[in-house]
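re: that complex we talked abt at group meeting.

here r the seqs, copy pasted straight from the sheet so there may be weird spacing, ignore it
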Amino acid sequence: GAGVSQSPSNKVTEKGKDVELRCDPISGHTALYWYRQSLGQGLEFLIYFQGNSAPDKSGLPSDRFSAERTGGSVSTLTIQRTQQEDSAVYLCASSKADRAHGYTFGSGTRLTVV
Amino acid sequence: SQQGEEDPQALSIQEGENATMNCSYKTSINNLQWYRQNSGRGLVHLILIRSNEREKHSGRLRVTLDTSKKSSSLLITASRAADTASYFCATDEDGNNRLAFGKGNQVVVIP
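got the structure back, here u go
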């Protein structure tokens, strides 16, 4: 597609429920990133996928968080047993492998855990 | 840890004035990038400056990079109300797989 697409744009869930966030990157971008942004804060790195290589999961805050990327394209970020501190905007970005032209971000998913 | 600490954190200026933001970082980098964010949503890439470059221009934007001081500045000339946004610097670090973002500068341009 023309840009990075994320869905849903907003998600309200009850504490303890599982949620899935989806990211559809730009066609031809081999690198895909998930970041989290809490209110008024900077971006916190979560996970990085590059082609068929093993993902860099070093930013995932707990084992309740996981992500996969199927067929080198669409990615799903799953949060199990959500907690109130998981409330944030979850941003997905993609880039070419060399990152020479920066990232293209999606519009994000605003997750609210009540 | 987060690289790219921007200074100042918030800036309010009149339309037509110039806005300057600074960013400092701590490690060796391949390049440094500036992004804009409106309304807490997706970031838009503005400009990238490589570690061997000292200054770069794009339209009303001017970016400088001083690798000896590990700092960068973003200048927006002749600001417009539409420039109201948060601006983030991000560093592409040697040996790392992703950009490290600072906490951002909130810029308000008053018409």
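couple things i noticed - The first strand of chain A starts at residue 5 and ends at 7. The mean pLDDT of chain A is 93.
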